[in-house]
User: What shape does this take?
Amino acid sequence: MDKNKSFRPKKRIEKGQKGYGLRQIAKMTLGSGNLDLAVELPVGEDLNEWLAVNTIEFYNEINLIYGALTEFCTPESCPIMSAGPKYEYLWADGQNVRTPLKVSASEYIDFLMTWVESQLNNEHLFPTQIGVSFPKNFVSTIKVIFKRLFRVYAHIYHTHFQHIMSLGMEYHLNTCFKHFIFFIDRFKLVDQKELAPLAELIQQFRERGRERMERESAQKVR
Ligand code: ZN
Assistant: This one.
């Protein structure tokens, strides 16, 4: 079992490309372990560039997590793309596939990750050259990316958490997902109704985040 196998190839930001410096900052603040701080736009930096760098990182993270699960998520084990008994997703990208397709979870996630990858590789949408600005539809497009990436987390939590535990990846999964949620919350990227399949878990993360902040500000006052 290779826990470092990415499902789709990792998306890299090379030195000299737009976002490289910000990505270093993002890594550093994330390393501090304070997720409230880690999602904040660093002072003086461009918001779209920050959104772009983080979108790429979240894609890479979920790529690795799902990459470790491919042997468990098969058309036989997961004939539909679901997030618990109440939520089922049909695939349509609104561009090439307009009529929603009922496909297995693994096919759905393959379509989804390939679609995200093609957005990230679209030079017009995610410019790599310094000085080139982001298009007007940038934020509306990344909202769709985040909405779709959430579904991969929802499927993993509902169907493959046992497998995650057997791989010893639960702490990593929770940390990545919590970071993802805090980021979505901070920049209002996904409608609450889309988050419903994991509402309870998200509520716990938010409450613990709030308690931590209150504790820390109380310490500062003292
Ligand atoms: Zn599955």
Q: What stands out?
A: The helical segments are 20-31, 35-38, 47-67, 105-120, 138-159, 161-166, 170-187, 199-221.
